[in-house]
Amino acid sequence: METTVHIEIDPVALIASMGRHARSAALVLAGLSSADKARALEAMAQAIRDAEPDILAANKVDMANGTAAGLSAAMLDRLKLTPERVAATADGVATVATLKDPVGEVIDEIERPNGLKLARVRVPIGVIGIIYESRPNVTADAAALCIGSGNAVILRGGSEAIESNRAIHAALVQGLEAAGLPGEAVQLVPVTDRAAVGAMLAGEGVIDMIVPRGGKGLVARVQAEARVPVLAHLDGINHIYVHASADQAMAEDIVVNAKMRRTGVCGAMETLLIDRDYPHAGQLIQKLQAAGCEVRGDPLLKQLVPGVVSAGSEDWDTEYLDAIASARLVGGIEEALSFIAAHGSHHTDAIVAEDATVAERFLAAVDSAIVLWNASTQFADGGEFGLGAEIGIATGRLHARGPVALEGLTTYKWIGRGTGQIRP
């Protein structure tokens, strides 16, 4: 009778070993020309296209497991891959190859009175650790951006997407090696237990920066435990404020798109604020309901529109990632600003208005990474910003903010050129 041998993996030793290989690969990547990196990215994109059958077969296993595990429809939508989504993933990798390479860019320079010439120059960060959930396309997006910015990367995806991630990772490594680069430049943590996450977070000196992409629980853990700098991506509790001056058709199109285009993305609208003087509030809510959205509203909206569910206090602080939205009437721009400041997550907020003065007040006052006027919050995406793929939407205030792409994965160093200067 056959016996199954279970091999215990020490997560600290595993991450340390992966880190050593990543550091060696990072040294190679840092010396590459822009053309070399572009060729590697194109090879990685083609490898994804060639591996489409394997990737879809692996995703089918993940989808079946996710359905059996009771994942929500929104989570399953994040997880699902189709031929179109695989093609889009490959195209995203190829797009990164066409973007301006930030490495080597001279940010500023100065010549001191003694003739010493100083310059700040962009350089790769080194080894990036990315911890993410659900979306297997993040495996390719993150790898492409790290390679494009000259960084090695250690990826740790969620257990629900493990088979899809492995298939995509295998294609990426094949593309790297076809371009003559070390496959260790992109590594996928082979285990899904939480101890591996802990080892990454404690990997000071092994990993130079951690990027979490996932739910509130994951991000909270990363921020609480990390001994490594963190580029945080927090909740997308995104608001749209419809001002009294808003065009009715535009407001309806934007609000429905922002909520219902894809409910499971971080750029989806979660709270709708409607000015009390906006004359079409009832029709706006009915448009959302007709699109299949459950609306949880304040007492005034409940009286105004049949079918509105009573909103509890927790609704104003909830990222639903589902076909649910909270909505309330507000008494003008200042009340809208105060509400967003109290309940927003500094991710993406938008105003629909024809009054330019009010709109500019909103754009200046809302303290979010992305603030929009007369546009859907679903534009909160690096590709839509012309940045190619993105590592995430950073909601903090340091290093990088908003969609993080190539430039956000670089730091800088000072370079001095002298002619024998000594300090008196």
Secondary-structure element series = HHHHHEEEHEHEHEHEHEHEHEEHEHEEEE
Estimated structural class: alpha/beta
Q: Which regions have little confidence, pLDDT < 50, spanning 5+ residues?
A: 1-7
Most strands sheet: 7 strands, parallel
Q: How far apart are the termini?
A: 81 Å
Backbone CA Rg: 24 Å
Shape: globular
Domain count, please report it.
2
CATH topology of the largest domain: Aldehyde Dehydrogenase, Chain A, domain 1
- Reading side by side through the largest sheet, how are the strands ordered? 10-9-11-8-7-12-13
Query: What percent of residues adopt helix (DSSP H or I)?
Result: 40-55%
CATH evolutionary superfamily of the largest domain: Aldehyde Dehydrogenase, Chain A, domain 1
Question: Per DSSP, what share of the residues sits in E-state strands of 2 or more residues?
Answer: 15-25%
Name the CATH class of the largest domain: Alpha Beta
Second CATH tier, the architecture of the largest domain: 3-Layer(aba) Sandwich
Number of helices: 14
In total, the number of strands is 16
